[in-house]
Amino acid sequence: MRIESTGAGSRWRAAAAIVLCCWGLAGGALAQTRQLEGVVAIVDDDIILASEYQDRMRQVTENLARQKIEMPPQEVLARQVLDRLILERIQLRMGDRAGVRISDEQLNEALTNMARQSGASLEQFRAQIEADGGSYAAVREQVRQEMILSRVQQGNVRNRVQVTEQEVDDYLASEEGQKRTAAVYHIGHLLLPLATDATMEQERAAMAYMEGLRSRLASGTAFERFMRAPDKTPYAFTGGDLGWRLAGDLPSVFLETVPALETGAISAPVRSASGLHLVKLFEKRGGSGQMTQQTRVRHILIKPSEVRSDAQAQQLAAQLRARVLAGEDFAKLAREFSEDIGSAREGGDLGWTSAGQMVPEFEQAMNQTGAGEISAPVRSSFGWHVLQVEERRTQDLSDEMKRNQARNILFGQKYDDELNTWLQKIRDEAFVEIKI
């Protein structure tokens, strides 16, 4: 959506656009709509009430204040809000005519994911909304509308966007592409300071101590704990979490050390003018040498429904597991019973999966199941799963990951441009009469 304004210009438009993009999930959107008379706009065969318009203005104003963004002129903000409401109404009507529906199951899954991202269960999420004086029913309806809008936009815009392999090649060869797909490292370090005039004997003793410390901290989160609260030692340590760093932004003393580390590894002591360092590579993204653990897995999905309770779904999943353990073919049972339409016809085969591809409950069960073994039934937001882990492998996905990253960046850029063009088109084609 492109809306021109005068005076304050792009600064005001940017501030309003940021808030308008996220208004629906903010705290202000939880308030009940006040029933006020009056119509502010007619949109085709629908209307926008003054109450909707005033509530949205209040929500956006509260969001700007909460985020400490300077308030744009009232007329600029008012135009943004009204145009957003008009575009939403046009798209919701398009979705209604196309038969776009969001089931309660899909809505619950979306809300569960929202709650999980905030570190809460769905029940805790709901309780927090109501404790803040909001309406959980209003939030559900708003999320349902946002999901409908997303589907309408994707259905009308996604097929218009194409990214060619040549475009990916050109992007990866560009300065921007090389920078955005370069390796970034999340590192932490411990520094044992040494005086510039330290004797050879003192340096050898410190080196021996650091070698022993490296071995002692090599497992689990011991290194992170030691960074926060070092044990009583003969030495005074400094250091800490250095966050994510591009290779070119690494401290010069670590330039050769960090890229050679495996994820989770701790370096040998590194000497600098300040003293001796131990460096740990917590995570790495991009670059080369992206060795990824993959699992080939099948599953059978049993969903609760109006005619099958959650307990009955779990019982059926357990019965199917018992049949596999008794010698029946997993793939055959998956084709007959699994309610995952995408994989059932393939005997439940999900192919090779990498970390982060599956919902957390599924991934945890998969990681805890040995190759060739069958998991106990596990519950996810989709229903009850029985997993068969077939094999595991470690793959270098560096080139594939780089190309996918570049493809996603280019697709996002093109999608945003195409979406703005399409939104302007449907706005121009709609009958809109503004009453204020």
Tally of helical runs: 15
Order of strands across the main sheet? 4-3-6-5
Architecture of the largest domain, according to CATH?
A: Orthogonal Bundle
C-alpha termini separation: 21 Å
| Model regions low in confidence, pLDDT < 50 over at least 5 residues | 1-36
Class of the largest domain in CATH? Mainly Alpha
Let me know the CATH homologous superfamily of the largest domain. Porin chaperone SurA, peptide-binding domain
**Percent of residues in beta strands:** 15-25%
Helical content (DSSP H or I, runs of 4+): 40-55%
Q: What structural class do you assign from the helix and strand content?
A: alpha+beta
* CA-atom Rg in angstroms: 28 Å
Could you give the count of β-strands? 11
Query: How many individual domains?
Result: 3
Classify the fold: give the CATH topology of the largest domain: Triger factor/SurA peptide-binding fold
Q: How would you state the average pLDDT, rounded?
A: 85
Q: Tell the overall outline.
A: globular
Order of helices and strands: HEEHHHHHHHEHHEEEEHHHEHEEHE
The major beta sheet can be summarized as: 4 strands, antiparallel
Would you mind describing this structure in some detail?
- The chain is an alpha+beta fold.
- It has three domains: 10-159 and 416-434, Triger factor/SurA peptide-binding fold; 183-285, Chitinase A, domain 3, CATH 3.10.50.40; 291-395, Chitinase A, domain 3 (Roll), CATH 3.10.50.40.
- The chain is 48% helix and 18% strand.
- The protein is built from 15 helices and eleven strands.
- The protein has helices at residues 10-22, 50-66, 74-97, 104-117, 122-131, 136-157, 165-173, 175-180, 200-216, 222-228, 310-325, 330-337, 341-344, 360-368, 398-429; strands at 39-43, 46-49, 184-193, 238-246, 270-271, 275-285, 291-302, 349-354, 378-380, 383-396, 432-434.
- The strands form three sheets. The chain has a four-stranded antiparallel beta sheet, covered by helices on one side. The chain has a four-stranded antiparallel beta sheet with strand order 8-7-10-9.
- A hairpin with a 3-residue loop joins strand 5 (270-271) and strand 6 (275-285).
- Helix 2 crosses helix 3, helix 3 (74-97) packs across helix 6 (136-157) and helix 7 packs across helix 15.
- The longest helix has 32 residues, at 398-429.
- Residues 1-36 have low confidence and may be disordered.
